[in-house]
Amino acid sequence: MRKIYIFDTTLRDGEQSPGVNLNMQEKVEIALQLEKLGVDRIEAGFPAASPGDLAGVSAVARAVKNASIIGLSRSRTQDIDAAREALIGAQDPCLHLFLATSPIHRKHKLRMEKHQVLETAEAAIRYAKKYFDKIEFSPEDAGRTELDFLCEVTEMAIRAGATVVNIPDTVGYMTPYEYGNIFKTLKENVPGIENIQLSAHCHDDLGMATANALAAILNGADQIEGTINGIGERAGNTALEEVALALETRQQFFQAKTSLVLSEIARTSRLVSKLTGMVIPGNKAIVGANAFAHESGIHQDGMLKEKTTYEIISPETIGLKESKLVLGKHSGRHAFREKLVDLGYDLGDEQLNSAFAKFKDLADKKKNVTDEDILALIEEKLIETPEVFALETIQVSYGNQSTPTASVRIKTLDGATLDEAAVGNGSVDAIYKAIDKATQEDVELDDYSIQSVTQGKDALGEVHVVLKQGDYSVQGRGVSTDILEASARAYVDAINRLIEKRKSPARGRDNVTLI
Ligand code: KIV
Ligand code: ZN
């Protein structure tokens, strides 16, 4: 079986999803989980984009021991130098250089002739080679680049010292036949191609990212780039879990495998969804809530007789376990700790106490506390942000013929109590206006989404918000059996993160354009 290397770009291309803005701790948390998942390479960010990105890549480089850490860079010396700085401390650093090669990009974006593209890329690779053993070169928009020119670019990249040449279908334009043919052509025509690895990088604009990645494998690609849950620019990138499960399930056909620990997929997917705020659609392949649900009577009957009638992948393969122990209000600390360990969390005493208190509170409101409820509770505060403001109480008055009014009580870090009230267009609007008054923060609500954690009237509601203030953009999360309380918690969480971000010299990357 041929080994296919997995290059995860959740923290770079994935973070380019609209509304996603991970802080440094969140990036490290995701990177450590990717390490557990067994990805070979982690693209941790684009260091030249901002000090925040540089700090994020640097933190990941220092935290991860068992994967190569990669920094993205335009074909410019300043970018390469920023990546060098960010990757100090990485066990196995790699630079990812890119320059667009397609006629559209050459003419309209770069305003360069073919020879200038070749010269610029070559100079960048040669400069980078002084500092990096491992260099990946990406001819951006390779999918729409003339094949003969792409061969020329690839040959130049190999000569200049690239160790991986990546073929990005930047705009998700390719069909599997065409994309596979690029790999076949490069393999057959480029001198020295046997000395480097070829990589596939697909976008999902036409819903073909996974199919294109698999076509690349069939035609000789050594590496697949993608993200967890397929998040990324526009319609997203290849979903790595889909590629991994396709190779696992159809081993005989592909004759290729990855080194991923498949049983870590569900956990990684959930973590990425939580920290990015990008909800996984129920029907998403492999990791959607309905991916293993059988609704129709005929299917259920088949499943009861023999699972393989309708199940090609078992939920256990990706780490989904059937919950045997449902907790309730009589469950004690011991059972709670056991449950957390079973779910993969080994909390310290302080964190356990706080999680147990939240669990008891929830068990008073909800008869059966499920695994999803417990995960939602502990993952709400997975990343500790200093609580400059803490929500104490909220009170809302709503009637469909009256103006919604909300009052909030907020405690500050130094013990002060802030009471404020406001009216709004709706209950959430009134709450947010009251919080604005109490915290005296002038913010703009850029995104708001709400999701129920489990089914049923007493389900936990999980709210995700994105707030903007000038150049800063932050996310916040809140969980409660009451959606108004969850909304208030998410908003206060985001304000706390905003304050933290303003204090930090390494600002987060907001509004950066790649050219
Ligand atoms: O899609 C793309 O072209 C990219 C490059 C930077 C590799 O993400
Ligand atoms: Zn991309």
Automatic annotation (TrEMBL):
Q: How does it assemble?
A: Homodimer.
Query: Where does the record place the region Regulatory domain?
Result: 390-515
| The Pyruvate carboxyltransferase domain, residue ranges | 4-266
E.C. numbers: 2.3.3.13
Give the gene symbol: leuA_1
Q: In which pathway does this enzyme or protein participate?
A: Amino-acid biosynthesis; L-leucine biosynthesis; L-leucine from 3-methyl-2-oxobutanoate: step 1/4
Q: Which PROSITE patterns match?
A: AIPM_HOMOCIT_SYNTH_1 (PS00815), AIPM_HOMOCIT_SYNTH_2 (PS00816), PYR_CT (PS50991)
- Span-the-membrane segments of this chain are none
Similarity comment: family membership: Belongs to the alpha-IPM synthase/homocitrate synthase family. LeuA type 1 subfamily.
Q: Which CDD domains match?
A: DRE_TIM_IPMS
| Keyword set, alphabetical order | Acyltransferase, Amino-acid biosynthesis, Branched-chain amino acid biosynthesis, Cytoplasm, Leucine biosynthesis, Manganese, Metal-binding, Transferase
Signal peptide span: none
Which GO MF terms does the UniProt record name?
2-isopropylmalate synthase activity
Per the entry, what this protein does is: Catalyzes the condensation of the acetyl group of acetyl-CoA with 3-methyl-2-oxobutanoate (2-ketoisovalerate) to form 3-carboxy-3-hydroxy-4-methylpentanoate (2-isopropylmalate).
Cofactor(s) demanded: Mn(2+)
Q: What class of enzyme is it?
A: transferase
**Residue numbers binding Mn(2+):** D13, H201, H203, N237
Output this protein's name.
2-isopropylmalate synthase
Q: Which reaction does it catalyse?
A: 3-methyl-2-oxobutanoate + acetyl-CoA + H2O = (2S)-2-isopropylmalate + CoA + H(+)
One Pfam family in the UniProt entry? LeuA_dimer
Q: Which organism is it from?
A: Paenibacillus allorhizosphaerae
